[in-house]
Amino acid sequence: MEQLLASLDALAAEDLGPLFGPALLDRLGPLLAAQNRLAAEVARTVREAEVSGAAEVDGLKTMASWLRGHAHLSTGEAARVVRTGRALVQLPVLAAALAAGAVTGEQAAVVGRVAEPEHLTRAAEQGVDLGGVDTVLTEVAITRPHADVARAVHHYLQRLDADGPEPDPTGGRRVVIAKHADGSISGRFDLDAVGGEKLQAALESVVQAGRCAGDERTRGQQLADALVQLCDHQLAAGQLPVLRGHKPQVPVKVGVEDLVDPAVGAGAAELGFGATVSAARARWLACDGAVTRIVLGPDGMPLDHGRTVRLVPPHVRRAAEVRDGGCVFTGCGAPTHWCDVHHLLEWVNGGETSLANSALLCERHHTKVHHGFRVERQPDGRWRTQRPDGSEIRTGPLRTIPGRTGPGRTGPPLPAAA
Questions:
Q1: Is residue 315 part of a domain?
Q2: What is the pLDDT, as a whole number, of residue 163?
Q3: Does residue 156 lie in a domain region?
Q4: pTM for the full model?
Q5: In a domain, 234, yes or no
């Protein structure tokens, strides 16, 4: 072990600066093989520790809990290592390939599913040659991409239980959400094939409909924006289940001083699930929301509350939709049902809630306008967008479509809708 650590120290001391592409790849290959071999030794050692009850030395019951506490592995990774160690005992061909560095620990965990107790029992009942399965699946793991390994294992397990009952699709579904200190969230989800297909179809429809010129978002960002947009649609539609007599909504609590002050005001507003956002973000949400005035006493108890007022009444929104036809930010044109109604002069600064003081903006560009960008409607009905430095965003010659105005369109303005 000392020799291994000394070798790692020597590798870490090497200067990679002088190396270029091919040389770096030549160095990477053996490192990945060594990583696989170490994964084999970790799994093998964990298995022996499990059999001997080594975790009891540190007052723990299982090796999974020991790996979580002492090795700082996540719950899922600790369970994967334990399962891999158990599977390698039943799958000697796979164990040899992992020990030689030919397959990864992740591949070994996938193939190892065939050695789970219930699958071993079914294989024995049907006279399946586990050694042959071990050889075939290990060869797939050595020669094919990871996705092919997963498909091969799935195919084997389906054939093994071909006459079994159709599984309940809801049984394996789960969503885990973790909230961070700044109020943002991350998480993971597991869906069955049909549920996953539904989610992908819904997200893809929003992604493709929202493509616009100059979109530099990554694929992951596009999908995340699409997920938020789906939530926006459902919340705005008002068809979600009622919670304690109220339709689900995004409440924001912010002091009137922060609401009026043009400063960012970090951490000045509180959302319904406990997250805090800036006053600037609260003003952004208030553009197309409803506002309730609540007066608090010195002890924080409400003394008075006013009537909830919808800032943008339906007839103004309909008129803006007819006039603008979509997001007016240059180069976007997202459909009207994705857009908020933005006050060109903020309502907290005396801006009227009127068609003349309104502009349709999608979520992304509404955010940009509240962070330095500016949209203006010209007397001829065209919208122009300026960057924070005052320069104008241009997308090329404007196309004339009679009777339409808005981003990238010219023509006489449409009459306001009632």
A1: yes
A2: 66
A3: yes
A4: 0.53
A5: no
